[in-house]
Amino acid sequence: MSLSRVLAVAFLASGASFAATYCTTPDPACLEPVPVEKDQAFYVYRSRPLTQPDKTVERIFILVHGVGRNGNDYYRFAIGATEDAGQLDRTLVIAPRFHSNVGTGSGNCKDALDSSEINFFCRGWTDGTTAADTKVSSYTAMDRLLEAVANKTRFPALQEIVLAGHSAGGQFVQRYLAINRAHPKLAVPIRYVVANPSTYMYLDAWRPNPAAVKACPGYNQYKFGLIDIQGYASETGPDVIRGNYAARNVTYLLGQEDNVDAHSMDKSCQAMAQGPFRLQRGQAFFEHLNKTTTATHKLVEVPKCDHSAECMYRSVEGRQVIFNP
């Protein structure tokens, strides 16, 4: 079935009453393809059709999965947080999936792909690498999603988009927020929420662990810094990236118990130059950002949460950041 036919079926199947009947489980019926290039699409779980006019949508909450590419689980987490906050009737919830059945040096993925679904590289989607079977970057795919939903004609009550991620999804959002070229074109404001990433893209050469820096010549190369940036990121350029980063509306969510070596934490020399564990890496990055830029970003620590997306986003603190900033 062609992509245009898939979209038509999805639209017709939604029905006029969909606005009152939300899609709250990660079933195939809740998947929708977002056109990216020709007959290739980026698939997302969503609580309402992306193409149907809806006057009740005031916020769009997008939650990007971790290294497991388990958009289905993250959709449950996002729906749960939205229901806990009592915001399901006014929020369009979206959980993308960067599926892959091809590996790179850091993984070998065997996800099942839907018809027309873009085949992203196993780990490369986190930093904007082009997909396996096309020249499309994962950042381009997110651009298309944002452009599709930031539509005041379709969603006249829409006030903001919140793009959030956790772990590898937090890495994706932390880099994408400064590199993407869709942001200034959007018809509504967008906020970014970065939760428990293993590493950060630094804007300069400083790192909190000088000993690790000395032993790691590539510590400041992309994706850890702005040296040798390629692809989508290089088209934006390091100077623009630095300016974008300080200007964006960003909140960092850090679990106070995410301070152990667990859940595939990056232990490369580039990562260890940023600190011993995710909590300390986030604290150090935020402190340095405040000292060296004009950014007015926010940091929120979540008690009793370790490296759990569900704990982070369903916590009181996480829900406050998403729904009542």
Q: For the largest sheet, list the strands in their spatial order.
A: 1-2-4-3-5-6-7-8
Q: What is the CATH architecture descriptor?
A: 3-Layer(aba) Sandwich
Enumerate how many helices there are, as a single number.
Answer: 11
State the total count of DSSP E strands: 8
Provide the β-strand percentage band.
15-25%
Binned, the helix content reads: 25-40%
The Cα radius of gyration reads: 19 Å
**Low-confidence stretches at least 5 residues in length (pLDDT < 50)?**
1-19
Largest sheet: 8 strands, mixed
SSE topology string: HEEEHEHEHEHHHEHHEHH
| Distance from first to last alpha carbon | 42 Å
What would the keywords be for this entry?
single chain; 32% helix; alpha/beta; 325 residues; Rossmann fold; 8 strands; 11 helices; disordered N terminus; eight-stranded mixed β-sheet; globular
